[in-house]
Amino acid sequence: MKVVYPREQWCVACNLCEVACMTEHSKTKDPLKAYRTEKPRPVSRTRVEYRPPLAISIMCRHCAEAECVEACKNGSLTRNEVTGRIELDQDKCLGCWMCIMACPYGAIGQVTRPVGQEERRVANKCDLCPDREVPACVSACPNRALVFEDRG
Amino acid sequence: MKYVIIGNSYAGVFAIEAISRLDAGGAITVISREPYHVYARAAIHEYMDGAIGESRMYYRDKDFYERNRVTAMLGRTVTQILPEQHRVVLDDGQKVDYDRLMIGAGGVPITPPIEGSKGPGMFTFTTWDDAKALRDWVKARKTPKAVVIGGGLIGLQCAEGLKHMGVDVTVVELADYVLVKALDRFAALRVQQWLRDNGLNVVTGNTVASVSRVKGAITGVKLKGGERLKCDTVVLSIGVRPNTGFLEGSGIKVDRGIMVDNSMQTNIRDVFAAGDVTEAEDFLRKRPEVIPIIPVATMQGRIAGSTMAGRKEVYPGGLSQSAFQFFGKSVISIGNVISIDKNGGFEEIISEDGEVYKKAVLRDGMLVGVLSMNFVTRIGIYNSIIRSRMNVSGIKDKLLADNFGFLDLPKEFRDEMLTKPG
C-alpha cells in the first residue's frame, strides 16, 4: 500500500509539511486562521526532527501488524481491511496513551478535541488525507523530501 | 477448517482476525463465559464511574462476528477439553468439535481465604459484570466506604473510579509501595502522593487479616497489625492468575500458565494458547513468563491465529509495559525499570524536572527499561530501541532529552525503520 516515506537527504526542516498537515486537518483549511483562531488549535500529525545539518519528517507508517492497534484498550485504533490504513476513531479514544507507548516510530501524538460540551485529550495520527489524492504534507514539500509510495 | 476459540477478549479477537484474513472458508466458533459482545476489559473502571458510556466499551463493531464468520457462544463455559477427539465440552454437556483450538481464557482474580470475606459487600474487579455490580452496590449506599485490598493497577484504577463516585476509599498494599510491578520506589511514592492529594487513603506494608461482619453486613476490616478500618465494601484485587482450572486431565501442560512454543502451540497437537492464560517467552528475561497485558495478549492471539490458519509465525517474546493515569497524571513503564543488581552491568539515567520524572535502565550498554511520568511524547521509540538490542552507551546524554528522536540514533537503524514498509 502507498504510505508517506521521508527522504532525509532532501529535508531542510522548512516545516511546511507540518503546516500543510495542520491546515488539512483544520476546520477553516486556512493556515493562518487555523493557527490563530481555531480552538482547539489543530495539531500536525507529522513531526520534523532537526539536528543541523540533519532533518527528517516522521509520521504513521500504517504498519501491516500495527503495534498501536495491538495496544489500544478499546478498539479506537483498527486496521481498515480494504485500504490497509490504520484508522483512529477520535470520538471513541480513551486517551490512555497505550498507542503512544507502543508505536515504535513515535508517530502518534495528542490533540485536544471538543466532544459535546467537554474537551478531551485524545490520540492523533496521520490518516493519509482521505479527501486527497496525495497527502497534504507530500504536496507541500518543496524538496520532494516526502514521497507517497508503495514499497511492497 | 473448524476453529474453536475459548475466550472472547483481546487475544481471541486478534486470533479471529488473523484466521479470517488467511482462511476465508474457515468456520470459527468463539466460546465465552461472559454474555457480552467483545468489550474493553481494561476500561471497566471508566465505565463504572460514568466517564465513558456503553458505546465506547465495545472493542469491535456490532457486525464483528458476522463479518468474520464467527459463531459466538456467549454466556457458555467450557468444562473439559478432549484433545484425542478434538472436542470441547460445555457446561450443559454440549460438545463442540474443532480442527484447531485456541485457549484464550484469560485470568481469574486471586481470592485467598480471608476470614469474613464470604458474603455480600465483597467484590473482585476484572469483568464488566464486576464493575456493574460494584457500581450498583455503591450507588445504593448513602455514605459508602470501601477498602481495596491490593495496590496493583487493577486495585488503584478501581479505587480511583470509586473515588470519582464519591466513595471514601482506602487502598491496602502488602508491599512497601504501590504498583511494584511497573514502578520504582520513587515513582510509586509520587503516585501515592497523587492519590492522597485526591482524597484516597493509601496504606502500605500491610494487609487485611479479616473482614468483620454484623448480621452478615460488612462493618470493617482488621489489618495485620491489629488496626481496624471501618467500611461497608471490600474489593479484592491482589492479582490475577491464569484461568487454567478447567484444563485438569486434558494433558495440556500448565506451569503458572499454559506452556507454549514460539508459535503459541501447546504440548498438544492442534491446541494453542494466547493472552493472560499463557506463559510464553519474556523478551528481556529470556525465560517463560505470564505477562498479562494487552499488547502481549493481542500479539500472541495474532500469532496463534495465523499459525492455526497455516501461516506459521514466530513470537519475538513479550515485553512488559503499561500506560496509565491517575487523576490526570500519567505514567508509562516499559521493560525492566529497576536495576536488580548494581554490579550486574546495570546503569541508570535519571532526568527530573518538576512533575516530569524519566528514567532509563541500561544493562551491558543496552536499553532494558524506561519509566516516564507526565511525559508521553514519542515514548514508543524506546520500545524499538529495547527490541533492537543496540548499544546506547554513546548516546546516554541524549537518551532522555524531551526532543530525543531518530536523528540521535545510528543512520542504519533509522533507514531500516523509516525507509521500509512498517
Write the layout of secondary structure elements.
The complex is a heterodimer of chains A (152) and B (422).
Chain A: E1 2-6, H1 16-24, H2 31-36, E2 47-51, E3 54-58, H3 67-71, E4 77-79, E5 86-88, H4 98-102, E6 109-115, E7 118-124, H5 136-140, E8 146-150
Antiparallel strand pairs in A: 1-8, 2-3, 4-5, 6-7
Chain B: E1 2-6, H1 10-22, E2 27-32, H2 44-48, H3 64-67, E3 70-74, E4 78-82, E5 87-90, E6 95-97, E7 100-103, E8 107-109, E9 122-123, H4 128-139, E10 145-149, H5 153-164, E11 168-173, H6 185-197, E12 201-204, E13 208-214, E14 217-223, E15 228-230, E16 233-236, E17 240-242, E18 258-259, E19 271-273, E20 278-281, E21 288-289, H7 294-308, E22 321-326, E23 329-335, E24 346-353, E25 356-363, E26 366-373, H8 380-388, H9 411-418
Parallel strand pairs in B: 1-2, 1-7, 2-3, 7-19, 9-16, 10-11, 10-16, 11-12, 18-20
Antiparallel strand pairs in B: 4-5, 5-6, 8-17, 13-14, 14-15, 20-21, 22-23, 23-26, 24-25, 25-26
Helix pairs in contact in B: 1-7
Sheet of most strands of chain B: 5 strands, parallel
Radius of gyration of chain B, taken over Cα atoms and rounded to an integer in Å: 23 Å
H/I helix tally of chain B: 9
Helix content of chain B: 10-25%
CATH topology value of the largest domain in chain B: FAD/NAD(P)-binding domain
State the CATH superfamily name of the largest domain in chain B.
FAD/NAD(P)-binding domain
CATH architecture of the largest domain in chain A: 2-Layer Sandwich
| CATH top level assignment of the largest domain in chain B | Alpha Beta
What is the N-to-C succession of helices and strands of chain A?
EHHEEHEEHEEHE
Note poorly predicted spans of chain A: none
- Main sheet of chain B: which strands, in order across? 3-2-1-7-19
- Using the CA coordinates, give the radius of gyration of chain A: 15 Å
What CATH first level of the largest domain in chain A would be assigned?
Answer: Alpha Beta
Largest sheet of chain A: 2 strands, antiparallel
Task: Name the pair of protein chains with the most residues at their interface, and give those residue counts.
Answer: A-B, 46 and 47 residues
